[in-house]
Request: fold
Amino acid sequence: MSVRELVVLGTASQVPTRHRNHNGYLLRWDGQGILFDPGEGTQRQMLRAGVAAHDLDRICVTHFHGDHSLGLAGVIQRINLDQVPHPVTAHYPASGQRFFERLRYATAYRETVKLTQAPVAADGPLAVTESYTLDAYRLSHPVESYGYRVTEPDGRRILPERLAAHGIKGPDVGRIQREGVLNGVTLAEVSEVRRGQRFAFVMDTRLCDGVHALAEGADMLVIESTFLDEDVRLATDHGHLTAGQAAAVARDAGVRHLVLTHFSQRYGDPDEFERQARAAGFDGELSIAQDLMRVPLPKR
Reply:
């Protein structure tokens, strides 16, 4: 059975705290792993969360501020130390090429794994696999930043009552699914579209078109909420979102499960982020991210 879940490795903004590591998020998706924004300490957090280097197939960096990228050096070296048997692809803003290369070769080690560098220079698709398409959208931050979106292809859901109406049963059910037609009955006549799951990852940004494009119709939206609403001017000045802004985006986009993260050290009560998100009108499933928590994607 396929596993689709978010493993939270770190949730702090700018600096780690006693209870929050720098950023780090692993999306498990049908046997593949996409690591987002490995901040300092990510390699150790992976060990604590039971995430192995072998679990990683892609690394996606939103931007090159330290709390989102300083862990790259350790993660890349661990991938090579453990001799991961499959290629790994890294996506990151093209303008940060020099930062990526510095982190990749920060110290001496032996390269044993094919690591493909695939920088992002514009909105649009980055990769298409059998189980998902990966897209990027530009965000609004003092340095170039991109958010990422994982979209499963639409499928079809078989409707038993329609099968029965056409007298289709037993092995013929599998046959019409494979071939698309059986004795003049098409697959469309006995099924309906099952929309593919959608996952969106939005880090450091002000409100902008990219935020809304990434969030639209997402089953799970992982989004920064660095500030509380009373500090909205600070958020705008520094290129961030408040809890209320993030929740309003999720509300308007029809998000099913909202995960708020990337919290400023200035706040001591994480429950206030939830209160402000609910006050903004978001009534879906809501998680206030904590280090090492696991959040399953909503069932289809």
